[in-house]
Each structure stands twice: as structure tokens, then as C-alpha cells.
Write a structure and sequence with these properties.
Length: 94
């Protein structure tokens, strides 16, 4: 009888342990590619748009100079920059 009670207690504790240790949700994302231009490393799309590779820190303001490559007729218009929160999927326009 005592063995059965111990078995049940151990079983219940293990069940709570397994339930409490569910696998965390991970977000898979791709880093934006980097490329070299005139001995400088850029983040962006080679031959189109990029900015110097620096360490970005969340919620820290950082001025950066955007670089655009292409024909002058491609450079007309508005630039739209949007960011996507990796966990919530929320899109923010800047």
C-alpha cells in the first residue's frame, strides 16, 4: 500500500514537471544579408539599398545614413520603412 502511494505521488510530481516544462515558442527569422561596397560592410540588398553595419540596440535611438544604388529614374518617389515585431508580428511604419 505504501509503495502504491509513493508511486502515485512520484507520478503526479513528474506529470506537473512535464506540464510545467512545455517547450518555449521560438521565432525563426532570417537576418538581412550583408555585403561590401568600397571596403565598407553594409546591411541590405546589394546594388539597391543598404546602411552601414552597426550594432542596433532595441529601443535605443540611432541615426543611420541610408545608401541607395541604381539609375536616377529609380530614385524618384517615397521611401517606406517598416519594422515587424518578431514575436507579435505587429508591423510599425517609420
Amino acid at each position: 500500500m505504501l509503495g502504491t502511494i509513493r508511486f502515485l505521488i512520484v507520478g503526479i510530481v513528474m506529470l506537473f514537471f512535464v506540464i510545467g516544462c512545455e517547450k518555449e515558442t521560438t521565432v525563426n527569422y532570417k537576418s538581412t544579408p550583408t555585403f561590401l561596397s568600397q571596403d565598407e560592410e553594409f546591411i541590405g540588398i546589394e546594388g539597391k539599398v543598404g546602411f552601414l553595419k552597426v550594432n542596433f540596440i532595441a529601443n535605443e535611438p540611432l541615426k543611420t545614413l541610408w545608401h541607395f544604388w541604381g539609375e536616377s529614374d529609380e530614385m524618384k518617389g517615397v521611401v517606406r520603412v517598416e519594422g515587424t515585431h518578431l514575436e507579435t508580428g505587429e508591423i510599425k511604419l517609420y
